Amino acid sequence: MNTSVLLIDDNEQFCLSLSRMLSDKDHKISSVLNSNKAFLFLEQNRVDVILLDVRLGCESGIEVLVRLREDYPEIPVIMLSGYASIESAVRSIKLGAFDYIQKPVKYEKLIKLIHNARTMASLQEENKNLKERLLDTVPRIISKDFRIEELKKTIHKLSESNLPILLYGENGTGKEVFADYIFSRSQQKAKKFVKINCAAFPDNLLDNELFGHEKGAYTGADSLYKGVFERAHGGTLFLDEIGDMSLEVQAKVLRVLQNRELYRLGGKDVIRVDVRVISATNKKLEEMMKNGQFREDLFYRLNAAILSIPPLRERRGDISVLAGTFLKEYASVNSKPLCSLSPEVEDLLKVYKWPGNVRELKNVLNYAAAVASGQTIEKGDLPVQVFEQAEEDAVYNPLDDSEKAVILRELQENSYNKRKVAERLNISRTTLYSKMRKYGIG
Fold first, then answer.
1. Is there a contact between 170 and 282 (Cβ–Cβ < 8 Å)?
2. Please, what is the angle between helix 61-71 and helix 35-44, to 10°?
3. What whole-number distance in Å separates Cα of residue 426 and Cα of residue 181?
């Protein structure tokens, strides 16, 4: 591994001597006499380690060090000091220097210091890259809508507890993404996270998936099977689409949540379970309770905290940022050039009502990126039903009641402080005034 070293010292003879000392196949050394030349060199060349004299002629090596740490914090700096400047060398360590070495310089010690500095810098770079990769695996909620930001703040507050959480949202709003986000910030994030979509199974199979069965419990039950409650013991269980459970299954789920125990199908032994539950639904459970379709006692077991996710049509400001994210993902996964949206397509996406919400937006953009002939997505690249409906909505331009309601609520809650409201809605005051005129808000 060839190490590039930059020597900053005002003594030209010393620079020549040290350059001869370090000139070998493992080191490439360059030298400059002042800081101006040093920063110019750094702009144009890769440097692994810097050797800096504490007394740099008319300049202070300590002041140059401070500038180097600000502009090039990833490059380790080794200070060179005479006997009279040891105090300054020690002070430089506090300011971020890797180490110091006294003049006259001993070859073996300098080589070891350069090697250690290079190794440290490499480890720091690896650590930084690892952290970035880990961040990429952590669930993210991409939004600039103030309501989503409020939901995230609530989630952070709930992270210290193991309260059950109920997520409300239409199909495609990202309920599972929110469940992942909640889990990743919970006290149990290092434990198991098990998921099940209750709408994906008929009642008899859902019972089996939730609670498991013993060997021989029914024809074909050739071995013991643990249900999701048992598999999630000590961790978190995500019950998606709980509104699709039958009343019989609801009663069994309630018993598990109340007593923290279950019986496998065909079993006689009590199985103790300790599970934190996150549930989600696209149905109005309050109406289902009135109609006798959902147990009231189960509802109150699940809803210690309720988070309602607004549909995409109510947060159109997120369409552009989500579109950019989805197009980057598509380009990365498919090893294709990154596509951008034409102005016409951007306008169409903003007026379309998105009945399938964020999931539909992602699917539309994946399709458009796949069929686009160039790196710009045009109207003709969108699915026909999308741009036709978007054009129709744009022609009629109906009043966006949800947006009006949000603006009115924010104005009332903030005593009609328009500056504060504009900040909370993440829009300019000019845009806020324009929307108020549009909706007839005085």
1. yes
2. 20
3. 23
Cα angle: 319, vertex 322, 326; to 5 degrees: 130
Q: Span 28-33, mean pLDDT?
A: 92
Which domain range does residue 43 map to? 3-135
Residues 205 and 124 in one domain: no
Determine the Cα–Cα distance for residues 358 and 352; give it in Å rounded to an integer. 12
Alpha carbon of residue 225 to chain centroid: 35
- Residues 6 or more apart from 275 whose CB is under 8 A from it? 229, 232, 233, 234, 235, 236, 237, 256
CA-nearest of 210, 214, 288, 302 to 252 is 210
Domain count, the chain: 4
Instruction: Report how far residue 379's alpha carbon sits from residue 346's, in angstroms, rounded to the nearest whole number.
Output: 9
Note the pTM of the prediction, 2 decimals: 0.62
Residues 285 and 355 in one domain: no
Q: What is the pLDDT of residues 74-123, one digit of tens each?
A: 999 999 987 656 777 778 888 999 998 888 888 889 999 999 999 998 88
Distance CA 63, CA 85 (A): 14
The predicted-structure confidence for 329-385, as pLDDT tens digits, reads as follows: 999 899 889 999 999 998 889 888 899 999 999 999 999 999 999 999 999 999 988
Q: Are residues 95 and 74 in the same domain?
A: yes
pLDDT for residue 226 is more than 80? yes
Question: What value does the mean pLDDT of the chain take?
Answer: 88
Q: Which residues contact 254 (CB under 8 A, 6 or more apart)?
A: 295, 297, 298, 301
Q: Are 125 and 150 in the same domain?
A: no
Region 150-157 average pLDDT: 92
Q: What is the average pLDDT across 14-39?
A: 88
Count other C-beta atoms under 10 Å from residue 413's C-beta: 12
- 213 and 125 both lie in a single domain: no
Q: Report residue 206 CA to chain centroid gap.
A: 32
pLDDT number for residue 64: 93
Q: How far apart are CA 88 and CA 94, in angstroms?
A: 10
Strand partners, 80: 53, 101
Tokens of 209: 């998936």
Nearest to 182 by CA among 200, 164, 170: 164
Amino acid identity, position 271: I
Q: Could you tell me the pLDDT band of residue 398, with boundaries at 50, 70 and 90?
A: very low
Cα–Cα dist 247/258, whole Å: 16
Bigger pLDDT: 272 vs 402: 272
How many degrees, rounded to 5, is the angle at CA 432 between CA 431 and CA 436? 120
